[in-house]
Amino acid sequence: MAVRLERDPSGHGLLPGADCLSRTSPVEFRDSDANCLEIGLVNNMPDAALEATERQFRALLDAAADGIEVRLTLYGLPDVPRTEWGRHHVSSFYSGIGDLWSRHHDGLIVTGTEPRAADLRDEPYWGSLTRVLEWAERNTHSAVWSCLAAHAALLHLDGIGRRALSDKRFGVFECARVTAHHLTAGLPSRLRMPHSRWNDIPEDALTSCGYRVLTRSKDAGVDAFIKQGHSLFVFFQGHPEYEANTLLLEYRRDIKRFLRGERETYPPMPRGYFDEETVGALTAVRARALSERREELLEAFPTALLTGKVTNTWRPAAARVYRNWLFYLCAQKDRRLKRGRVESGVHG
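User: That's the sequence. What structure does it adopt?
Assistant: Structure tokens below.
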């Protein structure tokens, strides 16, 4: 496989052939090769989504890594609230965030999490997250900020606040490629991308602060955008890493929260995701839930049946964007290695 983990969260130890991935074996990883990349994943997702998020990003990077070797290191912020299981999982299979400060990564990916506070600056992990942000600017060629992590980065960097939506922006939306950039090279003029969020960033606030919008949706707003500093920061309001059934499982979770009284309104169905037959079946589930609000009704939700009917229509575009990102990291690493050889008087 092109993507290898230092520590395998599946619990089976290192991946087959991954004994060369420990920090004591940099020669086997060929750190002097521009096609060997060190990437960190700071996974802040809630416990229920921890393993799925690891799997999603690893699969997307693997689909994107065309002849590129990626060594992926997982990190977790210590201030993200977790259950005993979550704390054990992170301590067993993740590197401590303190390890990040003394390392260089070619690229970094930082996920969001479910917000608990109206103001992101009141979240318990705000201090740790902003320190990661400042570290990434100095110690990576590029960093990806996903969903809530993107909103937090904008607030910290330029004081751009997110605005609450009247309802959850949820589904698979058609987006238009609006900027020619190496990250959008090879993308079709229109592509589909999943979104799942309660907040939005106004496009005029981004452009007035020097951000470049790469893709946008008429119905979902800005999708992907960038800002170039010492590091190229890439922001996604959508979720290119999602698997085919991620929105389905999230919809089922939201229905469960409604039935348990944890949310007041019945959740909206993800847009552009289900076929007509499925929409009809789920509309019937909704009608029954509204008349008989009890958790036992969740048994009528046909999870297994629907999993076989949803498809990942966004994977080709997602893999292309991440492939372009990896190519960018390789090019930047190659420049760094050549500059280092010149400065040391070594000529290859």
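The chain has two domains: 3-243+312-344, 246-307.
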